[in-house]
Amino acid sequence: MTDTALSIPAVAEPSPAMRLVRRFLGQKAFVIGAGILAVIVALALLAPLIAPHDPYLQNLTLRNVPPAWYAKGSWVHPLGTDQLGRDYLSRVLYGARISLLIGVSVVLISGIIGTAMGLAAGYFGGKIDLLMTFIVTTRLSMPVILVALAVVAMVGGSLWIVILVLGFLKWDRFAVVMRSATQQVRSLDYVAAAQAAGASTTRVILQEILPNIAPHLIVVATLEAASAILLEAALSFLGLGVQPPLPSWGLMIAEAKAYMFFSFWLIAIPGSALALLIFAINLAGDGLRDVISPEGRG
């Protein structure tokens, strides 16, 4: 019996990478959200190859052609055309590029600002922490949408103006989360060991603290990206965001509001695309949060 027991091969322990993959795959919310988001990103990147027509090409003789599943529709324009005869499928595909560009750009700008403030306040504490708390409180007293409307109305609306305005307004959540996470990590043993070994403050922050609070940063980034995309759509709908002829989904909805009772698909199609993108980002962010939480790790 002993020989038989010894002959049974031992079951190999899964590697840390495999355990991480299993945790991600075990979160249905993350899998669904990340899958939808991956499809949207792929369509946006491949838009020049997939789009059947030039998204800026106008043909007034083909105004408000319905989608192909309507009796008067045509597969030449699968999603129909808009009020200027532009192919709607092409504009929706290129609109995904604009939304994703805004989401990523705003997160990069606001993430750098907020993370730097949060790390400094959480690590040094004292007067720096009080100053950061005062700045965050001041920022939270100003509604993002109202400040964005005022700034864009004064400066003028354009794609990069919207990105800069939102990027400089949406750093507060990064700062608050990074400050709290840094305060929890700075007193741990590996940080104290690095300090005792003579590591500089910059090295301790960038090599010891930041990598260990990066999961929190990623979760906040996903949520803020969805919020930035939605705010851009609101500004574009009001005429103060992305300007024509760029195919922003919010601008497409604004341009179609005069036809909503006669050609409702002009609003339904970009509105559904925008809702699906926001849903996918939020779902992926929620699933990611569950994975990195202590319960998810267990």
Domains, number: 1
Low-confidence stretches: none
* CATH topology value: MetI-like fold
Class by helix and strand content? mainly alpha
The fraction of residues assigned to DSSP E strands is: under 5%
CATH top-level class: Mainly Alpha
> Helix proportion of residues, in percent?
over 70%
The total strand number stands at 0
Order of helices and strands: HHHHHHHHHHHHHH
CATH H level: which superfamily?
MetI-like
Please summarize the sheet with the most strands: none
CATH architecture: Orthogonal Bundle
| Rounded Rg | 24 Å
Tell me the distance between the termini: 36 Å
Name the shape in a single word. elongated
Describe the protein in words.
71% of the residues lie in helices and 0% in strands. It has 298 residues and is mainly alpha-helical. It is elongated, with a radius of gyration of 24 Å.
Summary of the model, kept short:
The chain is an all-alpha fold and 298 residues long. Helices cover 71% and strands 0% of the residues. Helix 7 (144-155) runs antiparallel to helix 8 (159-167) and helix 8 packs across helix 11.
